[in-house]
């Protein structure tokens, strides 16, 4: 499909934010990657160009019927100045699964990894080096055809934005308080829960706002059919250490298949921890809690990597996990995973991909 990647560099570079002033996703680099799709022609004109607003027809289908999918990964720069990506091939594989689910055209995964490496290397001065900081990468695809008819668009745009982000845990890992959501659901079997699509997020915001108002940081989502089984926490996958084993909800079509989830499972297995992927009801978890067997709980996702859960509240029952402190296994996973990401811990899995020497 793709012809040569063209590069048009800006002569008006922006000022870079100070390392201690980085929040999440508010600063953007000087350039972006753009590629267009036209039915009959395929993906064409891949290019790196100056970051700028888009001109899009207000009738573009993305605004009306929500054909929009995205990805999220990071580039890490260590003290030696080496820049690395973490399993980028998996992100473009998943992008293709999301695209397929939303009836949108897929991309060439290998080409996209190469194009991303090029973009990151053009912008490498934007990657902060302070501990825990990184460059967040946001690829996304939107339907651009101007048409109000309900059908799949015939034209699309794929864009990759880069955003320097601060350390998620600027002052040490902090266990979060979770509200088990009983009325709103995130996704349903046969729906779009396992696609990374904007609509899933739009539908989740109200529950998150209400949980915040009640003093919780995140929502724990239950299955949509029986509202009994645990699916995800916020926009992360979730794990529980119960009686020495690691439990995580099995993939069922409504759970997003996290790359951090998969990496966590592989690490745990390599350490000899028994990983159990199964349907986990809140009821069963609460039983384990009452029996003193619920030892640790944490979420997994690119943004926080590993996020300890200190407290869960379900139907008026409060579970305080590990004295609301970060568990040992949780901490070890965080240290190992981030160590591999920054290239300071041996990567026996071949996950870390160097962008520069
Ligand atoms: C992106 C995402 C995750 C985490 O996926 P990672 O690949 O680990 O970053 C989990 N749940 C939802 C709903 C997501 O959108």
From TrEMBL:
Keywords: Amino-acid biosynthesis, Aminotransferase, Branched-chain amino acid biosynthesis, Pyridoxal phosphate, Transferase. Pfam families: Aminotran_4. Pathway: Amino-acid biosynthesis; L-valine biosynthesis; L-valine from pyruvate: step 4/4; Amino-acid biosynthesis; L-leucine biosynthesis; L-leucine from 3-methyl-2-oxobutanoate: step 4/4; Amino-acid biosynthesis; L-isoleucine biosynthesis; L-isoleucine from 2-oxobutanoate: step 4/4. Signal peptide: none annotated. GO terms for molecular function: L-isoleucine-2-oxoglutarate transaminase activity; L-leucine-2-oxoglutarate transaminase activity; L-valine-2-oxoglutarate transaminase activity. CDD domains: BCAT_beta_family (cd01557). GO terms for biological process: isoleucine biosynthetic process; L-leucine biosynthetic process; L-valine biosynthetic process. Its EC number is 2.6.1.42. The modification N6-(pyridoxal phosphate)lysine is found at residue 196. It catalyses: L-leucine + 2-oxoglutarate = 4-methyl-2-oxopentanoate + L-glutamate; L-valine + 2-oxoglutarate = 3-methyl-2-oxobutanoate + L-glutamate; L-isoleucine + 2-oxoglutarate = (S)-3-methyl-2-oxopentanoate + L-glutamate. InterPro entries: Aminotrans_IV, Aminotrans_IV_CS, Aminotransferase-like, B_amino_transII, BCAT-like_C, BCAT-like_N, BCAT_family. It is an enzyme of class 2 (transferase). Its cofactor is pyridoxal 5'-phosphate. Belongs to the class-IV pyridoxal-phosphate-dependent aminotransferase family. This is Branched-chain-amino-acid aminotransferase. It comes from Brevibacillus panacihumi W25.
């Amino acid at each position: 499909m793709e012809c040569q990647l063209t590069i048009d560099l800006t002569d008006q570079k922006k000022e870079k934010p100070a390392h201690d002033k980085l929040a999440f996703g508010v600063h953007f680099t000087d350039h972006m990657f753009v590629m267009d799709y036209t039915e009959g022609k395929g993906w064409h004109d891949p290019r790196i160009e100056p970051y700028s607003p888009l001109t899009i027809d207000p009738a573009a289908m993305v605004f009306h019927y929500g054909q929009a999918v995205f990805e999220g990964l990071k580039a890490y720069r260590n003290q030696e100045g080496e820049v690395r990506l973490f399993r980028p091939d998996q992100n473009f594989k998943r992008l293709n699964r999301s695209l397929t689910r939303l009836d949108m055209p897929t991309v060439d995964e290998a080409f996209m990894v190469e194009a991303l490496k090029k973009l990151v290397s053009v912008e490498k001065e934007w990657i902060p080096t302070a501990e825990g900081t990184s460059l967040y990468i946001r690829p996304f695809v939107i339907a651009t055809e101007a048409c109000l008819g309900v059908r799949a668009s015939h034209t699309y745009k794929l864009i990759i934005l880069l955003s320097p982000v601060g350390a998620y845990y600027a002052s040490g890992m902090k266990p979060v308080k979770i509200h088990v959501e009983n009325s709103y659901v995130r996704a349903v079997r046969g729906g779009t829960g396992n696609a990374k699509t904007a609509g899933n997020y739009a539908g989740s915001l109200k529950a998150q706002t209400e949980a915040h108002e009640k003093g919780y940081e995140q929502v724990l989502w239950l299955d949509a059919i029986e509202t009994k089984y645990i699916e995800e926490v916020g926009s992360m996958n979730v794990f529980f250490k119960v009686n020495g084993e690691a439990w995580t909800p099995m993939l069922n079509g409504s759970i997003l298949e996290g790359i951090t989830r998969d990496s966590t499972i592989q690490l745990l297995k390599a350490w000899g921890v028994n990983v159990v992927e199964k349907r986990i009801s809140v009821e069963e978890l609460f039983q384990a809690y009452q029996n003193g067997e619920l030892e640790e709980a944490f979420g997994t996702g690119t943004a926080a990597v590993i996020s300890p859960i200190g407290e869960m509240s379900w139907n008026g029952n409060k579970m305080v996990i590990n004295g609301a402190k970060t568990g040992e296994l949780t901490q070890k996973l965080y240290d190992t995973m981030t160590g591999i990401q920054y290239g300071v811990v041996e990567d026996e899995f071949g996950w870390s991909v160097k962008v520069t020497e």
